[in-house]
Write a structure and sequence with these properties.
alpha/beta; Rossmann fold; 5 strands; 6 helices
Length: 138
């Protein structure tokens, strides 16, 4: 099982406002491939915090209805394990964020991965490369 970062969903679902450079077009295509594999049953884990991140960004960049549609479709997949986050989880993530110079939600993803024995993450966020004991897949 892999953890899946919000960045994958954002690349897959957000429509560009202008023509994309080739590298961003490639990332968008890769994100859609990952989403397709998940829709076909590949098991992944995500947290409620990362779902919220997806919802907020899609709502602000697309629409409320699109945000609801996407979050509902993720939640309905039986192969997506959605993890609750406790205050202690978030406090641990804050400590990691300081130590590794990464965002708090990235640190939270790493923390949850370690807590649940996951060593790979689908993400386009290079900050995950700061964690040497996990592998970022894209």
């Amino acid at each position: 099982m892999k953890f899946i970062d919000a960045s994958v969903f954002l690349y897959a679902y957000l429509k560009p406002r202008k023509d994309l450079p080739p590298e961003l077009s490639r990332l968008k295509a890769k994100a859609k491939e990952i989403i397709s594999r998940i829709e076909k049953g590949e098991p992944v884990m995500i947290s409620v915090v990362h779902l919220s991140e997806i919802a907020n960004i899609i709502e602000s960049r697309a629409s409320l209805s699109k945000s609801i549609e996407i979050i509902e479709s993720i939640i309905m997949l039986n192969n997506v394990r959605i993890k609750d986050v406790s205050l202690n989880d978030y406090l641990s993530a804050i400590k990691l964020a300081r130590e590794k110079s990464v965002g708090i939600n990235d640190a939270l993803a790493y923390y949850l991965m370690k807590k649940h024995g996951i060593s790979e993450i689908y993400s386009f966020d290079k900050h995950f490369d700061n964690f040497k004991d996990i592998k970022r897949k894209n």
